[in-house]
Amino acid sequence: MLSSQNGTAGGRTLPEGEALLSVRGLKKVYHTDGGDIEAVRDLTFDLGHGELVCLVGPSGSGKTTLLKCIAGLLGATSGEVLLDGQKVTGPPKKMAVVFQEYGRSLFPWLRVADNVELPLKNAGVPKAERKKLVDDALEAVGLSHVPKSYPWQLSGGMQQRVAIARAVAYQPEVLLMDEPFAAVDAQTRADLEDLIRNVWKKLGVTVLFVTHDIDESIYLGQRVIILSSSPTVVQEDILIDLPAERDQLETRSLPRFTELRHHVYAEIQKAKQGHRPEEAKTKFLTNPK
Amino acid sequence: MSAITSTAPAEARQAKRRKSGSKFPNGFWGLIGIVTFLGIWELVPALGIVEAAYLPPASEVLMTLFADLALTAFWVAVGETMLAWFIGLAAAVLLALVLGLVIGMSSFLRRATNSTIEFLRPIPSVALIPLAVLLFGTKIESSLMLIIYACFWQVLIQVLYGVADVDNVAMQTARSYGFSQIQRIRDVIFPTMLPYLMTGIRLGAAVALILAITAELIIGAPGLGKEIQLAQSGGAIAGMYALIVATGLLGVAINLCMRIIEKRVLSWHASVRGENAA
Amino acid sequence: MKLLKSISFILALPVLLILWWVAATLGGASFFVPTPADLGKTFIETWVGERMFTDVLPSVQRLVLGVLGAIVLGVLLGLLVGMNRTARAITEPVFEFFRALPPPVLIPVLMLLVGINDGMKIAVIISGAIWPVLLNTIEGVRAIDPVQNETSRSYGISGLARIRYQVLPSATPTIMAGIRQCLSIGLILMVISEMFASSSGLGFAIVQFQRSFAVPEMWSGIVVLGLIGVIMSFIFQWIERRVLRWYNGLKEVENAV
Fold it and tell me: Among the CATH numbers 3.40.50.150, 1.10.3720.10, 3.40.50.300, 3.10.129.10, which is that of C36-256?
C-alpha cells in the first residue's frame, strides 16, 4: 500500500499566526495487549478564525479519536495541536465539546438550566452574568421555556439543544462537535443543522463539525475535510462554494450541491477501498474566490 | 437508545484494551494489598501500638489457623455452621419461591399483602433471638429460625420483582396460544424471574451465614460462632482470631460459589439485567 | 371510592391477622403467646416511662451515631479508593474479605481492643456496617460513564467541584443501595452487641426478660425492635425517594422506550 511517507498528506494550512487551530502531523497509536493499533497516522490542517469546517470520513476512520486529541482529552502519540499558537496538552478553556451521546453527556441529576450553568459556576463567573449567559444560550437554541425540566424529560433533539446551549454559554472560541446529530431523527436533524449555522453566524465562533453524513457536511460547512479510512490521513480538503445563506430545500436542490455530493461520495468510496492520497493535496474544485 | 451506542463498541474496545494493557495485572496489585494488610497487622502488636495479648501478630494467628485445619473439631464446627446455613437457606428459598409466585401472579394478592410485607420485612431477625432461645434452646433449630426468617424476605422480594417484570406481551402471546397455567409458569414466568431469584439467593446466602454465626455466637448453637465465643471466654486469643479469619474465608468462598452458580444458571440469559438491578 | 379501596387493601390483611391472633388466644393465653390485650398493656407498662430513657433512647442514639459514622467514612474512603484504579486493585481482596466476614464476629474482637463501653458498641456498628457503603461507593465511582468524565474534563470541571457535581451524584444510586444494607446490619449489630456485652440497652433488656421468663415483656421488646426497624426503613425510603428522584424518573423514561 502506498503510504504517506513521500509527502505530508494534509489539509489546507495557513501562514503562521493566521490559524486559530492548527493540527500538525498528528498521530495516535493505541497500545494494546494484542499489539499496537494505529488509529490516526498523520494529520495536518488548519482552521482559521470564524470558520465552519466539517470533517467527514468512513466509519471507523478515527474521527472521534482525532476530535478527542484536538479537545485535549487524549494525548497524541506524536505531532501536536495548537490553539492560538499554544500547544494543547489538556482540555483548553477556549474550547467546548458537544458529544454525540447527549443522553450521557448531560448530567441527569441537574435540571436543564443547571446543566448549562455548571461549567460557568465552576469557572467562577459571577452569578448575575451567569444567569444572563444561561438565559441567552437557552434562548438561542429555542429552549427558554424548559429551564426547570430534567434532560431526560425532553426529546432527543431537545437534549442535544441543551448540550449545544451549554457549549454556547461557555463562550468558547472553538466549538468541537462529535457527530452530534447521529442519534436524532431526520426532521430534528434538519432543524439542528440550521440551528448550528445560526449560532455560528451570530457568535462568530469557529466550529469543527465531525460527521459521517456527506450531505450534512456539505450543507453545513464552508470547507469539508475528507478523511481516509484507518490509519487516518487527510484524503482531501475541499472548499464548499455554496451561497452563504443555506436553506434545507433550496441549497440541497442546487446543481452545485449535487456535484459536491457526488465528489465527496466518490472520495469516501475510494477511501473505503483503501485508496490513499499519494501526496498533499488541497484541491479547489472551482476557481478559488 | 440503541442508535446512540451504535458507534461506541470500537471506542469501548479500545478503552478496554488500554485498560488491561496497564503495567501489572490486577491480581498482582491485589496480592500487594493482602501482603500490606498482613504486614501492618504483624507490625501493630510488634511495635506495641496494641498489646499482643489483645491483637496477636498475623503470623501467630495464621499459624494457629493452619494448626486448626488439621483438627477434626474445627471441621466439625465448620460442618455444623454450613449445615444450618444450607438447610436454612434452602427452606427460605423454597418458601419464598412458592409464596412469591402465588402472590406475584395475582394483582389482588399483591395489593392485599403489600402493607404487611413492607411492615414485616424491616423487622430485624435478631429480635427473634429471645423467642428462639425460649422455643429451641441452643439446638440447631434456633439458628434455622433466624436464618429462615432473614433470608425469606430477601428472596421473596426478588421473586415478587421478577414476577412483576414478566412481559405483558409475552404473557398475552402465551395465553393466545392456549398455554395452560402450569405451562405459563414454566415457560414464561419462571425464565423471566430466574435472574431475580438468583440475586435473591446470592444475597440470602450472605445473610444466612451472618445469622448462622450470630445464633452460634449469642445463643450458643453449635458451630464456628460458638467456638469463637468459647475461645474468647477461654482466653485463647490467637485461636479466636484464627476462627474469625476462618469465618471470613468461609464468607468469601460462599460469595464466590454463589457468583459462579449464578453465572452458570444465567449463562443463556446473558445481558438480561445489569448487576446494579440488585 | 378509590381512596377507600386502597385503604382497605392496606388494612385488610393486618386486621385479619390480628383477628386470627385474638381468636387463637381466646381460650386463654398460652405460655409462649400472650393475648393482644395483654401485649398492649405490657408494652405500655414496660416501655412508656423510665425504660424509654435508660434503654431505648441510648440504644437508638448509638445506632444513629454508628450508622452515620459508617456512611460518612464509607463514602469518603470509597471516593478516595474508587477514583484511583491502582488503589482499587490493591484494596479489592482485603475489602472483599471484610465484606464477607459476618459482622457479629467483630464484637468479641472490639470487646478486647476497646473494652466494654459505649464506644465499643458504636465501633462495632461502624466496623460492621461500613462495608456495604464503602464497596458500593467504590463500585459506583468505578462505573461512572466515561462520557460524563470527558464532559467534566472538557468543560474544566475538576477537583472538589467535580466530586460534588459529577462523581457523587452519579454514584448515588449505588451508594443508596449500600446504605440500605448498612442500616439493617447496623440494627442487627446494635441489638447483639447489647445482648453479648452490656448492662443496659434494648438488646440487654430483651434478653433479661427472656431469661426471667417474662414472656409478654419479651414480646413487647421484640415489638419495639420491630418498630425501630420499620421506622428506620420508612425514613430511609423517604430520603431515598427525594435523593434519587432524577434517577427513578430517568429509569422510567428508559423503560418506557
Answer: 1.10.3720.10
Q: How far apart are the C-alpha atoms of B20 and A11, rounded to whole Å?
A: 35
Residue labelled with grid coordinates 494494546:
A32
Q: Mean pLDDT over residues C219-225, rounded?
A: 88
A269 shares a domain with A133:
no
- Put simply, the answer to whether C230 touches B119 (Cβ < 8 Å) is yes
Residues of C in contact with A166 (CB under 8 A): 155
Regarding whether A199 and A118 lie in a shared domain, the answer is no
Q: Among A142, A170, A198, which residue terminates a domain?
A: A170
Task: Note the pTM of the prediction, 2 decimals.
Answer: 0.84
Greatest C-alpha distance within chain A: 59
Say what the pLDDT of residue A258 is.
Answer: 93
Residues of chain A contacting B20 with CB distance shorter than 8 Å: 32-33
> Does B90 reside within a domain?
yes
C172 touches chain A (CB under 8 A): yes
Q: Residue A71 above 70 pLDDT?
A: yes
The reply to whether B223 falls in a domain is yes
Is B13 part of a structural domain of the chain?
A: no
Residue of A nearest to C149 (CA): A105
The residue among B239 and C52 whose pLDDT is bigger is B239
Percent of chain B with pLDDT over 70: 88
Interface pTM, i.e. ipTM: 0.85
CATH code, B76: 1.10.3720.10
The answer to whether C97 contacts B113, with C-beta atoms less than 8 Å apart, is no
Burial of C253 (0-12, 13-18, 19+ CB in 10 A): middle
Kindly report, residue by residue over C231-245, the tens digit of the pLDDT.
Answer: 999 999 999 999 999
The alpha-carbon gap from C233 to the nearest alpha carbon of chain B, in Å, equals 6
Q: Which of A153, A170, A187 is the last residue of a domain?
A: A170
Which residues numbered 213-242 in C keep a CB inside 8 Å of some CB on B? 213, 215, 218-219, 221-222, 225-226, 229-230, 232-233
The cell numbers describing B37, all together, are: 494488610
What's the CA gap between B153 and A101, in Å, rounded?
40
Quick check: is A10 in a domain?
no
CB B14 to CB A101 under 8 A? no
**Long-range CB contacts for residues C30-36, cutoff 8 Å, separation at least 24:** C31/C215, C32/B134, C32/B135, C32/C215, C33/C219, C34/C215, C34/C216, C34/C219
Segment B260-273, tens digit of pLDDT: 998 888 876 654 44
Which chain B residue lies closest to A104 (C-alpha atoms)? B4
Touching check for B107 and chain A: CB below 8 Å? no
Residue A264 belongs to domain with CATH number: 3.40.50.300
Burial of C158 (0-12, 13-18, 19+ CB in 10 A): middle
d(CA B238, CA B232): 9
Assess B9–A contact: CB distance below 8 Å, yes or no: no
- The pLDDT value recorded for residue A277 is 67
Q: Which domain holds residue A251?
A: 48-74+87-93+171-274
Note whether B234 contacts C: Cβ–Cβ < 8 A: no
- For chain B, residues with pLDDT lower than 70 are 1-23, 268-278
pLDDT digits (tens, 9 = 90+) for C116-142: 888 888 999 999 999 999 999 999 999
* A217 assigned to some structural domain: yes
